[in-house]
Amino acid sequence: MSNRLKTLSNGLIRENPVLVLVLGTCPTLAISTQASGAIGMGVAATLVLLGSNMAISALRKIIPDKVRIPCYIVLIAGFVTIVQMLVKAFAPALDASLGIYLPLIVVNCIILGRAEMYANKNGVLDSALDAIGMGVGFTLTLFVMATIREVLGSGTWMVGIRDLIGGSWNGVIVPWLSSNQISIMTLAPGGFFVFGCLIALVNKMSAGKAIQKTDFGCAGCPSAKACGKLQEGQCGEGADA
Known about the structure:
The structure is a single chain. The protein has 2 domains: 2-210, no CATH class; 216-241, no CATH class. 57% of the residues lie in helices and 2% in strands. The chain contains 10 helices and 2 strands, in the order αααααααβαβαα. A two-stranded antiparallel sheet has the order 1-2. Helix 3 packs antiparallel against helix 7 and helix 4 crosses helix 5 (92-98). The longest helix has 31 residues, at 124-154. The chain is globular and about 60 Å long.
């Protein structure tokens, strides 16, 4: 049980997909200008990650190794299509907010990376827990980045949330900052600045040991079994073979 709890919590700090593994940087920087949109993107990506991880784990023994990447992409694209249709039907404002970045979840490195590094080696339940942990880590990172950038850059917080979930509350106008905006925070340089600060913070919190990599050679590669170099003894430095 403790191992599964560790799997579920890994994505929060120790193996945070954005701040530690540095995956999904493009949608992270593009979407993190409004907290409401960041939550929508995070939830959509988490649903795709959960579905694809479970499907790939269930099919891992029957998918031929040599064509596993194309198979993964087809499965991921199917789940992205389902999520996109649901968003268009029930949250059109979110669909307009995310724009091209919603269908581009297909090529999000977080989704394909977890399929390759975890789902194709573990059972369905463990893969589901990994997906939830990574999805929550991705969502929290997006939300924190978007909160910082929206508050400082626009002087607002959670503006547009009413269009996404309904209700009467539509965000907060931040006193003073609403009339003294740091507009660069809503632009690319501000995104990179906040991104770098959060990476430094996570590195400080984990004392620089968020992930301990012990093998950089061929033996640690997911494609080792299909690669002739491992059998021929031509591995690079660091391999166990």
